[in-house]
Specification:
The chain has 184 residues and is mainly α. The protein has a single domain, classed as Ferritin, core subunit, four-helix bundle (Ferritin, Up-down Bundle). The protein has helices spanning 2-7, 13-43, 46-72, 92-119, 123-153, 159-173. 28% of the residues are buried. The structure holds hydroxy diiron-OXO moiety. Hydroxy diiron-OXO moiety binds at residues 26, 29, 59, 62, 103, 106, 135, 139. Residues 26, 29, 59, 62, 103, 106, 135, 139 line the site of hydroxy diiron-OXO moiety.
């Protein structure tokens, strides 16, 4: 049965491997955001914590979309092993600096995958990945917008409290979720 499935598919082995790498990256994203959410919660940044708990769930959804796609395309989605997630962070600002850096890395990974699919004429996977291209642009924008809050409001006095409130509002407007997972 496995032989039959393997021979009758258009998904290249290399593409399957790259998709499994992306599954791992999305799982790492989810784990990092969960850890950041916990740190924010114990430090009293309630809104940032809620925002990051939501973001952790969103990343898990990103992972699952690829997971299901790989199996539906005749491949084998692999449960990734995740280790080395930090549990302590320097400051609220450093968390969002790390998020922006991380999201830029995820964008590069998605672009490399899209480029690979286009070069190999795998237009089905290329099409599937367009949702991620849009999502990454939104996630980078959101992280940059949050970092601007630190510069505009400042961290002195009630600054950090106000920034936490504003992060809560950005989370509530759902800027990261303007693309529905069902649109892929
Ligand atoms: Fe999955 O979008 Fe961030 O990492």
């Amino acid at each position: 049965m496995k032989e039959f499935i393997t021979k009758n598919r258009s998904l290249l082995e290399e593409t399957e491997e790259l998709l499994n790498n992306q599954i791992k990256l999305e799982a790492v994203s989810s784990a990092i955001y969960l850890s950041m959410a916990s740190w924010c919660e114990i430090k009293g940044y309630e809104n940032s914590s809620a925002f990051l708990y939501g973001h952790a769930e969103e990343e898990k959804m990103h992972m699952m979309k690829i997971f299901r796609y790989v199996n539906e395309a005749g491949g084998h989605a692999l449960q990734p092993e995740i280790t080395g997630i930090p549990s302590d962070f320097k400051s609220l600002r450093s968390i969002f600096e790390d998020i922006l850096d991380h999201e830029i890395d995820v964008t590069k990974s998605i672009h490399a995958l899209v480029d690979h699919c286009f070069s190999n004429k795998d237009f089905t996977t290329f099409n599937f990945l367009q949702w991620y291209v849009t999502e990454q642009r939104e996630e980078e924008t959101l992280a940059r917008r949050i970092l601007e809050l630190f510069d505009i409001i400042g961290e002195e006095g009630l600054g950090l409290w106000t920034i936490d409130q504003e992060i809560g509002k950005l989370g509530a407007t759902g800027i990261t979720s303007t693309v529905s997972p069902d649109q892929a």
